[in-house]
């Protein structure tokens, strides 16, 4: 164990587990078919009821809410039209204050999504900025004159498809948008913009929020000369944006200065967190650089290492090893399997050759996420084994932000991973508390069997497995803060790794396929091991290491 581990003062966002709520889809209290804050409040006990021995709750440490501010909802809230208010569809400011209070009562922190790369085009700031070339906010967004013959100012592309420039008649100029044309990018070189955003941040911190997830935090700054982005050599991604090297639109030095300033504000308030989405390509480089060179940028930097990996032990281990190597010693890794932008992992990974056992994948993936070194972030419904809804009728699709281009090189709609949480087998899975209103997205039809109520009373459910795993993690110093060390150099069918802290050693064994001998490249000293959790052994069984792994066996052991 390194000196570093011993001397550190551990924070809640390092030892805890974060749970992402997509508010439109979690729980609908007022029966309008869309999730809301009161719905979340009524379901808080499921996440954490404050009782460490609870028979029904997950024991989550923090919730991250996708955006809940006022928004025309072109991108379901990732297009904010007023930073200081709560969108009507979600409730009121009082509802939010109650949510924070109720969460805190149960020992859960509340993290808000902070979408400050861009606003909605309905934000007063943009409306004013677009009104003329010389209004007080004329320079709050990225405006450029057309090239001769009215052409777009340069070759910059939108992540959501097509050019990143949209012409505005009033100003006779183009404005830049990394995402949809309804999401114009703010001009972060303008000190007034910074001031206005920093004021917003303080507003929410003063209300007691415990931190922010910074949306699109690697693209705040753009080149002031608007130079053309080069082509990325050899790239053939389905999304044309990823085939350009975002040299002048991403990860600029100025971007890091902004994050340092955000960090300073968060730090003024004490124990708050800033976790940032450091998308999009070369995930590891991007993510670890965002910790800053003096631990002065993000507390947690999200990259997409598991979402972009196949379900294959060698790839998964390689991602962990890279992150272990690159994360600065004072910083802390974070991982997730799913979020609101990508297909759910059980849908992504079912096509691999060894995936004859989805239940086994769910258990192994859960164990991987919750036993490697770093803060795990769960996405609502993952703990049930929710899969993507793949048959949403075209007219019911809601992801309006992603645009179809003539070449079709755009990300697919993200609705399939955003369907309502499956609470029980009543109408619409109990999403609207039994009311038979049509939810904003159709419920996945598997809800009759796959729902919280059924899973809570089934000892073999994925939910039950997650609950046990979360408990094991909470009670284990090694799993929370210990170092990580693989016992196999090039794993191809199973993973075996140790988590070691001052007082504890935990061994994790994940078999991705059929029965096999358990061998290690790194010798393991002889010892007795106690089963903490397994889909093969009974809890607390004492083992003198088994020499075989059963098909799809997942076992977590503690050295005694
Ligand atoms: C982030 C969000 C995504 C959103 C985009 C624009 O990538 O996760 O949902 O559409 O930013 O705000």
Structural commentary:
The chain has helices at residues 3-7, 12-15, 23-26, 37-47, 93-105, 124-131, 191-206, 253-268, 283-289, 313-326, 345-348, 358-371, 452-456, 462-474, 477-481; strands at 18-21, 62-65, 69-70, 82-86, 109-114, 143-144, 165-168, 173-176, 211-214, 273-277, 300-302, 334-336, 375-379, 483-486, 494-501, 504-511, 516-517, 529-534, 542-543, 548-549, 554-559. The mean pLDDT is 94. The protein has an eight-stranded parallel β-sheet. The protein has a six-stranded antiparallel β-sheet with strand order 14-15-16-21-18-19. Strand 9, helix 8 (253-268) and strand 10 form a beta-alpha-beta unit. The chain is of the alpha/beta class. It starts with a helix and ends with a strand. Helix 4 (37-47) packs parallel to helix 5 (93-105) and helix 12 packs parallel to helix 14 (462-474). It is built from 15 helices and 21 strands. Helices cover 25% and strands 16% of the residues. It binds alpha-D-glucopyranose. Residues 75, 78, 115, 179, 215-216, 277, 279, 340-341, 401 line the site of alpha-D-glucopyranose.
Stretches with pLDDT under 50, minimum 5 residues:
none
Work out the strand percent. 15-25%
> Helicity, in percent?
10-25%
Mean pLDDT value: 94
Supply the helix-strand structural class: alpha/beta
Largest sheet: 8 strands, parallel
What's the shape?
A: globular
Could you tell me the radius of gyration in angstroms? Answer: 24 Å
Secondary structure: number of strands: 21
Distance between the termini: 18 Å
- Report strand order across the widest sheet: 11-10-9-5-2-1-13-12
Bound molecules: alpha-D-glucopyranose
The helix tally amounts to: 15
């Amino acid at each position: 164990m390194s000196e570093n581990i011993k001397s550190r003062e551990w924070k809640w966002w390092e030892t805890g587990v974060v749970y992402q709520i997509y508010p439109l889809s979690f729980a609908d209290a007022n029966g309008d078919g869309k999730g809301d804050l009161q719905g979340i409040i009524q379901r808080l006990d499921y996440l954490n009821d404050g009782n460490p021995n609870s028979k029904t709750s997950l024991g989550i440490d923090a919730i991250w809410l996708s955006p809940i501010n006022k928004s025309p909802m072109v991108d379901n809230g990732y297009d904010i039209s007023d930073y200081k208010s709560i969108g009507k569809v979600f409730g009121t400011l009082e509802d939010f204050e109650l949510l924070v209070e109720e969460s805190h009562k149960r020992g859960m922190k509340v993290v808000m999504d902070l979408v400050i790369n861009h606003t909605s085009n309905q934000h007063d700031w943009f409306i004013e900025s677009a009104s003329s070339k010389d209004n007080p906010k004329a320079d709050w967004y990225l405006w450029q004159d057309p090239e001769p013959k009215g052409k777009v100012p340069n070759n910059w592309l939108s992540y959501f498809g097509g050019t990143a420039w949209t012409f505005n008649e009033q100003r006779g100029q183009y404005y830049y948008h990394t995402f949809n044309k309804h999401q114009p990018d703010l001009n972060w070189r303008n000190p007034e913009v910074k001031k206005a955003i920093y004021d917003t941040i303080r507003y929410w911190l003063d209300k007691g929020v415990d931190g922010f997830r910074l949306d699109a935090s690697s693209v705040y700054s753009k080149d002031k000369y608007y130079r053309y982005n080069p082509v990325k050599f050899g790239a053939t991604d389905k999304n044309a944006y990823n085939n350009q090297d975002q040299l002048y639109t991403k990860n600029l030095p100025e971007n890091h200065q902004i994050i340092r300033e955000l960090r300073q504000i968060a730090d003024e308030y004490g124990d708050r967190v800033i976790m940032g989405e450091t998308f999009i390509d070369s995930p590891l480089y991007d993510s670890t650089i965002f910790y800053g060179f003096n631990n002065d940028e993000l507390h947690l930097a999200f990259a997409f290492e598991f979402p972009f990996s196949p379900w294959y032990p060698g790839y998964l281990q390689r991602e962990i090893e890279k992150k272990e190597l690159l994360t600065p010693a004072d910083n802390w890794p974070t991982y997730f399997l799913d979020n609101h932008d990508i297909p759910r992992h059980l849908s992504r990974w079912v096509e691999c050759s060894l995936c004859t056992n989805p239940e086994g994948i769910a258990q192994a993936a859960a164990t991987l996420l919750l036993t490697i070194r770093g803060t795990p972030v769960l996405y609502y419904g993952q703990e049930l084994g929710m899969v993507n809804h793949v048959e949403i009728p075209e007219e019911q699709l809601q992801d309006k932000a992603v645009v179809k281009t003539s070449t079709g090189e755009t990300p697919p709609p993200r609705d399939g991973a955003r369907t309502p949480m499956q609470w029980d087998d009543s109408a619409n899975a109990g999403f609207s508390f039994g009311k038979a209103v049509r939810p904003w997205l159709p419920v996945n039809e598997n809800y009759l069997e796959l729902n919280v109520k059924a899973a809570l009373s089934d000892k073999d459910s994925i939910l039950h497995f997650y609950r046990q795993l979360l408990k094991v993690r909470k009670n284990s110093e090694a799993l929370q803060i210990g170092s990580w060390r693989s016992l196999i150099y090039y794993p191809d069918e199973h993973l075996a790794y140790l988590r070691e802290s001052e007082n504890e050693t935990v061994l994790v064994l994940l078999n991705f396929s059929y029965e096999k001998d358990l061998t290690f490249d790194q010798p393991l000293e002889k010892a007795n091991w106690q089963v903490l959790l397994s889909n093969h052994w009974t809890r607390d069984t004492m083992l003198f290491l088994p020499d075989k792994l059963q098909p799809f066996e997942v076992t977590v052991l503690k050295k005694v």
